[in-house]
Structure formats: structure tokens, C-alpha cells
């Protein structure tokens, strides 16, 4: 099938790469010339395991074309995916400017029947609005089918999540659109749920908000565990064995970040308030997440007597491991908080390139800890499991390790003479 993908961000690039790998002919449209030139040369602007190889392979086979020419993609493809960003607006409402711009550009180009599939996370009612906007602008209604097909891929495991999803949600009342998408996704073995347009939009927000709520819930439990000297990892394991609860997203830590959870919980809160509903759980979810930063700052203050006149190493800056994304990263927020308080902060991250005023960034993990009073682990990169604690103990000045992601075995650190402070871990 010929497939058009509008937007070469995280979702757009991943779905383009996967569709092309499945043998479809993909036209990925991006408005930035420079980005398109890079992509054509196989240079991928994001760090996502496996993505570059898949894109290069499809470019070589001629199955994937990057272009700035929307008209070319519209002409060639019956299926058009919209995968542009919907960033947070000033009051928590999603900003739909990019979507609106695309719709305006599509108006003169749709002269034959097209299926417009929204992958972007959009507020309830947006797909209906897209359909009406196109019709009011003069596109013949029989030429337009609008479908909401939300994406549930995670950064760091995007290809795997797209190829092996646990469900495919298709919001539409058009049977032909369902059949077309089923043909497109024939490599996938997952159940389909066909819903209304608004139902599919709501499922996406609800899923992300529920997962964020699970994280804030376990972080609240971790605070209680701390007070009662109980290990929260045992508690998470125990409750996770109940299939009604499930074991995932129960890792207590510094809180959630990234380009999705913070934005989507806020957007759902905004949507609720628009209808005069007070979304208590959504509000508590965000409050707990924000409080995690000051809480872990206080833990550090308690362990380091000279705080804030201290030199601290922070390992990890990305919002989670296996990505270079620092958008809304709790690690970066903690780094900023410690710096504002007057601490001298030294950062090491295996992938992210960061530049924060008054923060020293190291390219060597061992250099980052030399002479430091304390070490904070802010993101759970795999490599932190296998560092040489004998060396670290020799080179660090102080002996405090604040493990904000419960990465390290407390006993191992104790053996090396460290004071271990974890998340809900005695
Ligand atoms: C999230 C969702 O998981 C995807 O299903 C969704 O498609 C995506 O948003 C999106 O809307 O585009 P992502 O933001 O890539 O994916 O990251 P997650 O793996 O969900 O992690 C989000 C945050 O929660 C990270 O900061 C992570 O460190 C934190 N987290 C996750 C925890 O603190 N504890 C956990 O147990 C799990």
C-alpha cells in the first residue's frame, strides 16, 4: 500500500520506518528542509534503538521517501497519517496549531477520496472538528474519511511497541477505513477495538493518565514505606502479582517525565474542567509528581551536613533510559533545583547532550564523581548497574548515594562503605 505520513517526529519516524519495513511504500512529509536532507542521508535526529538501521534499509530499497512536498504524498497515497506534535498550551490545553496548519494545506490537495488517520494525541472532538473543517473549506464530504488511531509506543522501545502492540484502537464509523487499516497492519497479531472517533481520543488520554497515576500512587506508597522502614520494591512486586493490578508502571522513583505523561494528564485535567468537573485524581497525580523533586532534595539535605555547600554528581539526565530525550525530565528538574539551592552539580549521562548554566557536564562517568560529596542517580541507565564501586569509593570525597530510581543493591553499597538512600527502601 502507499502510505503518507505527515510529520517526522518520534511517532512519524517510527511508523514510517515500520510501515516501510512491512513492505509498504511510504512518503514521510516534513516541512523543515534541513531535516529532510538529513533524513534522506540516513541521519536520524533522535536516539531510538533500531530506528536508524530500519530507516537506512528502507531508503536503500526505495520503500521510504522523505519529502517536503505534501502534494506529492497526497497524490500518491489513499491513506494519510497525521503525526505532528500537539504541545502543551499556556493553560494545559493542547496546542493544535500544527494540526490546523496541515488541515489548511490539505484542503486544495484533496480531489479524490482519502482516509485521514490521526496518530497525534488530540483532545476529545478534534477528529470531528478536522472532518467539519475540511468540509467547510470546500472539500467534498465523500472524499473524506477521518479516523482516530492512537499510538501507544514508548520512546526507547518504539519499534517493538509498534510491531507488537497489545491492541489496535480504530475510532471510525466507516467500514472501508477499518478494512484498509487492517490490511496495513496485517503483520500485527493483536486484537482490534473499533470505537467512535471521540472514544479513541479519550482512550489515549485515559491510558496515559492511568499509567501516570499508577506511578504517583506507588511514589506515595514509597513515602509511607520510608516512614515505616518497608521496602517498596517488595510491595510493588506483591501487589503486581494480582492481575487486577498488574506489575508494570509500579517502579517508584523520582517521578514521571517526558513529552507525553505530563502533557496528557494536564490536557485531561483541562478537558474535565471545561465541563466543570474537578478531576481530583488527575490533580493528585501531578501534585505527587511535582513533590518528588523537593522530597529527594530534602533527603540529600538530611544526609549531607554541609548542604547546599556541596559538590554533587548526578547520573542520568534523560526522562528515562534508552532515549536522548530530556523534555520534561525529572532528572533535569532536580539538577536545576540543586543548582538553584547553591550546590555545585556535575552531570553524567551516557547519551543526552545537555548544557545547563553553572552545571559541569562530564563525558566520563568516573570523572563525574571525583572529589564529590554525594552521588545522585536520577535515571536508571543499565550501565549504572555495573560500575566499579571500589573505584568510586576511592575517588569520591563523601559517601552518600541517593538512588532516586532504586537501581543499586543497598547491601553492595554498604559493603563499600556508602550511606545508601533509596526510594522507599530501608
Ligand atoms: C508513554 C506511554 O507509555 C506510551 O504508551 C505512549 O504511547 C507515549 O507515552 C505517548 O503518549 O506517546 P513514554 O513517554 O515514551 O511513553 O515513556 P514511558 O516509558 O511511559 O515513561 C514515562 C515516564 O514514567 C518516565 O519518566 C519513566 O521514568 C516514568 N516511569 C515509568 C516511572 O517512574 N515508573 C514506572 O514504573 C514506569
Annotate the secondary structure layout.
Blueprint: E1 2-6, H1 10-21, E2 25-29, H2 33-40, H3 51-61, E3 64-67, H4 70-76, E4 79-82, H5 97-106, E5 114-118, H6 126-136, E6 144-148, H7 158-163, E7 168-171, H8 175-184, E8 192-195, H9 197-228, H10 232-240, H11 261-274, H12 280-303, E9 311-315, H13 330-341, E10 344-348, E11 359-362, H14 365-369, E12 374-377, H15 389-395, E13 400-403, H16 410-415, E14 419-421
Parallel strand pairs: 1-2, 1-4, 2-3, 4-5, 5-6, 7-8, 9-10, 9-12, 10-11, 12-13, 13-14
Bound molecules: uridine-5'-diphosphate-glucuronic acid (UGA).
Residues 121, 151-155, 208, 211, 215, 249-251, 253, 256-258, 260-261, 319-320 line the site of uridine-5'-diphosphate-glucuronic acid (UGA).
Q: Could you please describe the fold and organization of this structure?
A:
- The protein is an alpha/beta fold.
- It has three domains: 2-195, NAD(P)-binding Rossmann-like Domain (Rossmann fold); 204-286, Orthogonal Bundle (N-(1-d-carboxylethyl)-l-norvaline Dehydrogenase, domain 2), CATH 1.10.1040; 292-421, Rossmann fold.
- 43% of the residues lie in helices and 14% in strands.
- The protein contains 16 helices and 14 strands.
- The chain has helices at residues 10-21, 33-40, 51-61, 70-76, 97-106, 126-136, 158-163, 175-184, 197-228, 232-240, 261-274, 280-303, 330-341, 365-369, 389-395, 410-415, and strands spanning 2-6, 25-29, 64-67, 79-82, 114-118, 144-148, 168-171, 192-195, 311-315, 344-348, 359-362, 374-377, 400-403, 419-421.
- It has a six-stranded parallel β-sheet with strand order 3-2-1-4-5-6, sandwiched between helices.
- Strand 12 (374-377), helix 15 and strand 13 form a beta-alpha-beta unit.
- Helix 9 (197-228) packs across helix 11, helix 9 (197-228) runs parallel beside helix 12 (280-303) and helix 11 (261-274) crosses helix 12 (280-303).
- The chain is elongated and about 70 Å long.
- The mean pLDDT is 96.
- Uridine-5'-diphosphate-glucuronic acid (UGA) binds at residues 121, 151-155, 208, 211, 215, 249-251, 253, 256-258, 260-261, 319-320.
- Uridine-5'-diphosphate-glucuronic acid binds at residues 121, 151-155, 208, 211, 215, 249-251, 253, 256-258, 260-261, 319-320.
